[in-house]
Write the structure tokens for this entry.
Amino acid sequence: MSSAISIKNLCKQFGNVKALDSVSIEIPRGLSFALLGPNGAGKTTLVKIIATIMRPTSGDVTVDGHDIMREKEKVKAKIGLISHQTFLYEDLSAEENLIFFKNLYHLDDGEKRVEKALKIVKLFPRRYDEVRTFSRGMKQRLSIARALLHDPPILILDEPTSGLDLPGRRDFYEMIRRFKDEGRTVIITTHDVNEVRLIADAIGVLSSGKLLFSGRIESIEHDLEDLLIDLMGEQN
Amino acid sequence: MKVRDILTITKKDLLLEFRSRETLNSMLLFALLALMLMSFGTGASDAVVRAVGATFLWMVIIFVGMIGVFRAFTSEEERGTLDGLRLAPISAESILLGKIVYNFLLLFMVELIIFPLFIVMLDYPLEGSFLMGLLVLTLGVAGFAVVSTAISALILNARARELLFPVILLPIIFPLLSSAIHGLKTVLNGGGLLDVQKECVVITVYIILFLTISLLTFEYVIEAS
């Protein structure tokens, strides 16, 4: 199976601080990969580099075979990013938001896609309402519709459940399972071990910019929580 | 860089502005108050109005412009929507040009309202053509929109950017402003287009120069911090 994302010796430095230190990961297509790590581990930096919105200091990253530095626009078309920030305009309606992103992604059959996406996230009846009137969970669902609009094969979820209540999280996990069933590669950053157990096929553990572990969940012999504590303990 | 992408960004910003009217209302209110103060303060002779009128008008445009232009990028950052733009498969230049066009249109709308008001409220002894005055003013406003948008983007990730913006902008824009003020003064006081040729050339060169520099550097500027 070829890689959806290939990262080789990736480094990112902010002044004297190494946010990522020689990180190498191969993420096969169709896999659900969880990036675990404490706050400040470098998860969001890694995600931003993969999504081409941040430049690496050194190293190589390819997304679906496209180099993130040389083929930015092709990479962007392959990726849907869902973050705790929704990237939505609160003063625009749900439909106006999606039409704006449809235009940015140059989708010719966009109207149909907008309608379909709104129906998938169950917001079609509220399509004319301004986003500011939505609950956090509804905004996050609309953010999913935004990320799915161009039908990307790779979905990156950067701590997407932060701020969501329990029903909101349950709906979210259900959607991630659906993405996997559709054959999409899902990368999720989190520091919640329970979330990993529910949705991930493989994990990568980052701490202080270093990749401490990368492998399939089934290859982990003892408890995931114990592994994390051991890894962090070894590093400290 | 595609015209369609530039217009998509501009259209979205105009829609947001017309819906909230946050920036436009503040700009117009400031402009009206400044014009009122001027009209009380310059109840003087025609000669005084002719001598300082164009400078007064441009001072209003600069301060009003700084309120509006500065918001174009910072509002995206405050809303958390800037990454949404960065993520889209469009060139960084399209984002910048979309914002420049939006800022120009915003300033142009304000200009269309305050220029006639300026003539009326200051009882300007107009000797030249009103339309020519509007034309020269519009060229200056276009230059202001280009330079100020580029600088507002440059300092996006800076600390205390609200303070930094005028400190950087005003010295840089000084040659453009002096040409714009001189050009406007000349046409309002009876000069023709030939009389302001030099000023128009300076403003146009400034627009081309800043547009080129900002387009070449914007990809690095827009990178996430």
Notes: The mean pLDDT of chain B is 89. The first helix of chain B runs from residue 3 to 20. Chain B is about 85% helix and 0% strand.
